[in-house]
Amino acid sequence: MSRFFCLFFVSFASFCSFLSAADDRPNILFIFSDDHAYQAISAYDSSRNKTPNIDRIAKEGMRFDRAFVTNSICGPSRAVVQTGKYSHLNGFPDNGARAWFNPAQQTAPKLLQAAGYNTAVVGKWHLNSDPVGFDYWQILIGQGPYYNPRMKTGDGFVEHQGYTTDIITDVTLDWLKNKRDKDKPFFLMYQHKAPHRNWEPAPKYLDKYKGATIAEPETLFDDYSGRELPARDQQMTVANHLNDLDLKLVPMQDQTPEQRAVFTKAYEDENKKLEESKLEGRERTKWNYQRFVKDYLRCVDAVDENVGRVLDYLDETGLAKNTVVFYTSDQGWYLGEHGWYDKRWMYEESFRTPLVVRWPGKTKPGSVSDKMVMNLDFAETFLEIAGLKVPSDMQGVSIKPILEGKDPADWRKSVYYHYYEFPQPHHVHPHYGVRTDRYKLIHFYTIDAWELFDLQKDPHELKSVYKDPAYAQTVADMKKELKRLMDQYKDDGTTVVKYENPNPPMPKAKGKAKAKAGVS
Ligand code: CA
Predict the structure, then answer these.
(1) Rounded average pLDDT per 10-residue block, the chain, 520 residues
(2) 3-class SS at 120?
(3) What integer pLDDT is reported at residue 509 of this predicted model?
């Protein structure tokens, strides 16, 4: 054999080995739910329910006890996950009528796709513009219904019959089994609508928790006396702001007559008793809480069951060995804490989000991290897992070293938050703030109201010590840290590079628009 051919074969062999090495890059499965409180995951807290499948990820991987979001609301959180940038830079700060993710900007899925990953997103998208950077997508339109969803793909619409959580999983498994390019590693975003408002359970879970009493949080009857105006001024209380659809006192709108008959029957006896009892005041609030939280947990049950179906498929096919599995939510949620449902606040329950990650061979099973991580870090983490360089304009930090059991000495010691959407739908005043290990400083900047919480002494955040002279130095230190983070993240507190729908729909009738705003 001539020297030329020998060289050719050696080079070809090296090229092939490069290709095969490239193909060994880990798959990434990002399981994302909507409004799933860590208080409703038994790996965190088993006082309310059991989530054996999500717990499997924690048991076989790592649980993060201090995972936070930059802006606690659906669309904006999703834009942060795509870009690794805060809302004021990614152009999607709120779920307003013209909110529109700028599809031209840099995203992690685009970079993964360009680097040879087979990419897909299935389920709730909620960024309004069509997904870009995905080889396959099938998404709910806006929030999407709990039953019989119409879903959008690159090739048009698909009409589904059945329960949305099951359907999103069916479509996901179909992609994994039949549609993906098996010569490439995959990046799959498997994203549930549940357990978002208005919490319609699947038929099989309608009777679960019947007769049980779910524990009430200590702060269900919070009087907001230890805080500034915003905590009192909101519209998201279990006592007064759940509507008849939320409470299942009227027929659901997204079901077939057959589905509705089964659904309505499940609530019939309890609704009749409520009508006869004429409950008022605290007793009615307690009833609302039980109704809301049980439906919420029933929706979580279906999510957990379906997560199990996907984990089983990974196990059966051997894919599990080389797949990093994330389970997280777009933010946290109030399960009656402070008397609330919904999210938005920098107070702990909505600021924090659940996060468990399994990476066989890399992440120690059953490990727990108290490092402060954020949804801002996902894009960077996906890229590093794929062996790619993180672009310098992304603002988060890859958590890959933490997953590998390392203890990065220079890891962040504080987190920055900024919420915008006001006044509708829940009248939560805009605010930004900083949280450290022990303290949290919040500035409701449109009314110039400040709060400081000592989380060690006051974990439920009931009494602001901002005006307490004993905390004067802490206030000064925290303001300095807030300024440092705002500079670092290029947020001057007011400027938002907002991107809007270039072809907005015609304005809706006032009454209808209002009703829709109530479920954002
Ligand atoms: Ca959400």
Answers:
(1) 43 44 84 98 93 98 98 98 98 93 98 98 98 98 97 97 98 98 98 98 98 96 98 98 98 97 98 97 98 98 99 98 98 98 98 98 98 98 98 98 97 98 96 98 98 98 98 98 98 91 71 41
(2) strand
(3) 55
Q: Is the peptide bond before 425 cis (omega within 30 degrees of 0)?
A: yes
d(CA 269, CA 284): 17
Tokens at 507, concatenated: 């304005």
**CA 331 to ligand 1 centroid distance, Å:** 6
User: How close is the Cα of 37 to the center of ligand 1, in Å?
Assistant: 10
Output the CA 199–ligand 1 centroid distance in Å. 13
Distance (Å) from CA 169 to ligand 1 centroid: 19
Say how many Å lie between the CA of residue 1 and the centre of ligand 1: 65
Distance from the alpha carbon of residue 115 to the mean position of ligand 1, in angstroms: 30
As a whole number of angstroms, the distance between CA 201 and CA 186 comes to 31
The answer as to whether 17 is a domain residue is no
Domain that holds residue 135: 25-516
Domain of 207, CATH number, reads 3.40.720.10
Distance (Å) from CA 332 to ligand 1 centroid:
8
CA of 34 from ligand 1 middle (Å) equals: 4
184 C-alpha to center of ligand 1: Å?
31
Residue 46 confidence (pLDDT): 79
Distances (CA, A) of 395 to 36, 81, 350, 378, 383: 25, 11, 21, 11, 13
Q: Is residue 263 part of a domain?
A: yes
Rounded to the nearest angstrom, the distance between the alpha carbon of 97 and the centre of ligand 1 is: 16
Whether residue 20 is contained in a domain is answered as no
SS3 351: helix
Ion ligand 1: protein residues whose beta carbon lies under 5 Å: 34-35, 74, 330
Q: Residue 475: inside a domain, yes or no?
A: yes
Number of domains in the chain: 1
